[in-house]
Amino acid sequence: MTLKTIISFITLSVVIELCSAQCGCTQKGIKISNFNVGDMVLSSQDVLRINGFKAAQGVHWPNKLLRYTFDPSYPDKNKNAIREFLKIYEKELGNCLRFLEEKSDVYATVVLGGGCSANVGYNKNYPLSITLPDPCVNRRNVKHEFTHLLGFMHEHTRPDRDQFLKIEFGNVHSGLCNNFYLCEGCKLTTTYDFDSIMQYPSEAFSCNGKDTILKKNGGKIPFNMEVTKLDAKKVRDYYGC
Ligand SMILES: [Zn+2]
């Protein structure tokens, strides 16, 4: 065994040990401990909603208009791509609502940042933002984050998810357990959608590379790129279209 091999082995062992020490959630312990859950930046009202209280009023965007602007420092090269994705998304939603870019009186700002994230729902008393750095400017992430802003959580947090999914809690990174809370206050108007743009793939939040989210029959869930008919129905139902 060469020195290099030994060092690699020791490094690998340490990594494995670290990983295994950071694996696992107890279902009971899953609750919102702070205001950031995965790519969702939540206001205190959102947290109340997630914990099963009645949805706060005003979480719908008024007049079916999501009014946004780009932060002055946001790079021009990304803006047209985002505008295009949103135009397509409007059509996919059957023109139920509009994403309106405005200069003033806006409530959501597109900003650069370390990862893709967004606030959940409208809240006029809270500065809303969508964080879209370069790697997030693609059709999936732009629509996914704007869907959060429209008021939606991840598909795997639906209150009925345990009828459809098997969550392998032992493979979930201990620091990411709050991604698996159940949205007890969320109203459902569609059947479970494995293909939803709001559904995470099987290996999401894994501490060890093993699957965390599987279909009840053991089937894997891929990384979904497209808005489905059920996604569109969900948004249209929520906005009364
Ligand atoms: Zn998300």
From TrEMBL:
| Residues of the active site | 145
Which cofactor is essential here?
Zn(2+)
What EC number(s) does this enzyme carry?
A: 3.4.24.-
UniProt enzyme class: hydrolase
Kindly give the InterPro entries that the UniProt entry links to this protein.
Answer: MetalloPept_cat_dom_sf, Peptidase_M12A, Peptidase_Metallo
Alphabetized SMART domains for the sequence = ZnMc
| Stretches assigned to the Peptidase M12A domain | 55-241
Binding positions (Zn(2+)): 144, 148, 154
Recorded GO MF terms? metalloendopeptidase activity; zinc ion binding
Q: Give the matching PROSITE patterns.
A: ASTACIN (PS51864)
UniProt cofactor note: Binds 1 zinc ion per subunit.
Keywords of the record, alphabetical order, are: Hydrolase, Metal-binding, Metalloprotease, Protease, Signal, Zinc
Signal peptide boundaries: 1-21
User: What biological processes does GO assign it?
Assistant: proteolysis
The answer to whether keyword Protease applies is: yes
Query: Which Pfam family name is an example for this entry?
Result: Astacin
Q: Specify the protein name.
A: Metalloendopeptidase
Task: Name the source organism.
Answer: Schmidtea mediterranea (Freshwater planarian flatworm)
> By which gene is this protein encoded?
Ast4
